[in-house]
Write a structure and sequence with these properties.
With 205 residues, this protein is mainly α. It is built from 7 helices and no strands. Helix content is 57%, strand content 0%.
Length: 205
């Protein structure tokens, strides 16, 4: 009886909660199921009601992407450029051309001027004189200048780019620079980052 009483007294002693070893182990709450946790993370998606609404959402998404790409290109972010415009060698070619005034960039304006001159109803004698000087003198001189400039730009840019970037591929870099030199400055794409003379283009406000 004495043994039974002693066991009862020991078992009835309250356990102190101050002892960390006596605390119940675990999180104290049931672990949520995976599908319940994923369900809470999911965001409600508003499905289009009909085909017209789906088309409208698609158009809005595409417009936002185009606007983001346009801003990225204007800022000079190469990740928004086409593949043909990416790489340090292509950027060097663009900056080399944009920082100079080349005769070939006036080819298109000069051609437009010739076209307008042929449309104006000049008097017979004046018209023949203008056509002679423009078509027989001005046009051949301009073509020779464009050809010489294109060859020089292609050779010079490719040579300097190869020396500056020895590990980069120079395939098409010279032709790329020559074609850019033929374009009107305001119509060049990607937009020029340098002004004639080498100064950076001021940011648009």
């Amino acid at each position: 009886m004495l043994r039974r009483r002693s066991q009862t007294s020991v078992d009835d002693t309250p356990v102190s909660t101050d002892d960390p070893k006596a605390q119940p182990q675990g999180k104290g709450r049931p672990t949520p199921k995976r599908r319940d946790a994923e369900g809470r993370r999911r965001q409600p998606v508003s499905a289009p009601k009909d085909r017209k609404e789906a088309y409208r959402q698609m158009r809005a998404k595409q417009a936002a992407e185009r606007d983001r790409a346009r801003k990225g290109m204007l800022a000079g972010d190469e990740k928004y450029y086409p593949v043909r415009d990416r790489g340090p060698a292509r950027k060097f070619a663009r900056d080399w051309v944009d920082s100079r005034r080349l005769p070939s960039q006036y080819f298109l304006p000069f051609s437009l001027l010739i076209l307008l001159a042929t449309w104006i109803p000049w008097p017979v004698g004046t018209r023949e004189l203008i056509l002679f000087w423009v078509m027989m003198t001005g046009w051949p001189v301009m073509m020779v200048g464009v050809l010489f400039t294109s060859v020089y730009v292609s050779w010079k840019v490719k040579k300097e780019a190869a020396a500056k970037f020895p590990g980069e591929s120079m395939k098409g870099v010279g032709f790329y620079a020559a074609m850019r030199a033929l374009q009107i400055r305001k119509l060049r794409f990607p937009p020029p980052q340098l002004l004639p003379g080498g100064k950076p283009v001021p940011p648009k406000k």
